Amino acid sequence: MIYFVASIAAIAGLLFGYDEGIIAGALEPLRAEFQIGPLAEGLMTATVPLGALLGAAGGGFLTRRWGRRRLLLGAALLFVIGALGCALAPSVLLLSLGRLILGIAIGVAALVAPLYISEMSPASQRGKLVSIYQLAITLGIFGAYLVGFAIGESWRGLFATAMVPGIMLFVGVLRLTDTPRWLVLAGRRTEAQEVIAHLGGMDESDPRVAGELGAIEQAARAEHSDATWRDLFGPLARPALIVGTGLFLLQQLSGINAVIYFAPTVFGEAGFDGTRAQLLATVGIGAVNVLMTLVAMALIDRIGRRKLLFIGFAGAALSLGLIAFATGTGMENGQWLTLTGLVLYIASFAIALGPLPWVMMSEIFPLSVRGLGMGAASLANWGFNFLVVLTFPILLSSLGLAGVFSIYALVCVAGLAFTARYVPETSGLTLEEIEAHLAAGKPFHTLALSLKVA
Ligand code: BGC
Predict the structure, then answer these.
(1) How much distance in Å is there from the Cα of 354 to the middle of ligand 1?
(2) N or C: which end of the chain has fewer CB within 10 A?
(3) How many domains is the chain partitioned into structurally?
């Protein structure tokens, strides 16, 4: 059963990553075919995070209306339509429209998949499953880079391949049931009972089935306790809101998607001539991203969230500084120093700044506003992603690579101060212990400390 849920997480993550990464290889042939300036390039690229912002905003409402399963099926269909639209687009405008549709589908899938996971998986496995999701994102990006390297000349072919994970999601979800929790909310109690029995390999008359159903009904009532956006800004939840949205702001403004979406362009700016060399170096970046995410998964519960974030922000600030230095001074053979900087940057990101905002967003919000809080955090993720991707080509043409990366480096330095001042240490604590600390009104970042002292 856990494999079943994990596979949904994996397919949704793959889609997310694949559609983020595919543009990297497509940009060069697109520039060759259409005359696009920096503004049009930024707009066309940023339609994916823009669509995702819309999908995430509307998705929350639709998960309640349609249920998780039907919404995922809808998202899978949108994926296929969007990818096909991109592959056939006669102009940059229509291509942007296709990418907007893809973005909406990503926003919905990226919202529903974690919800599905949290409603279907035992509490003890939740953290691991969230990390599997991030690993799948990086695998999706890596896959897109490999395909970009293999068929780099044809941007139409590249976008057409994005239909494959969409079809996988559709077929996978067809075999799924909806979650017992949604069935309860929709008043379909008997079906909920059947699903619980089936998932646990139990008979429907087993008292454990009635027990689980009762617990779900109770939790559903608790969450239905008219929590509003105002509660999210209230004294109990505000510290969590600051950390949840702040970490995504920093994750995105550290410039990660300037690299993920524009990697070959960045390599070109850094002095790597020739499309093949740029695409190959891009594949290397994708591989480091996957490998270091695996390392992060092994470390997250051992080293702790705060220490990992300090390591990640410090590493990212230093490596971005190194790239700015190598490209800004125009030194001889500077491209190798830039390559080293980029590898170190991706490693620092993947070990901490990539997975931690997702993991922490699922554990810091008090139960009554958890859904709203996670929604706000994922909107922050897409909103700042959009901002970075839209502005990168424009900033690149006005400030140069050294200038833009210096800005991202400063953001990472701010990340160190933010972590010290606001981020709590949550590893090894139960969600109830975290919530009790908030309810006691103590500063959030003293969490683990205060428990140790007590
Ligand atoms: C971020 C994405 C990013 C990816 C890179 C994720 O955690 O939210 O925006 O592209 O990591 O691996």
Answers:
(1) 6
(2) C
(3) 1
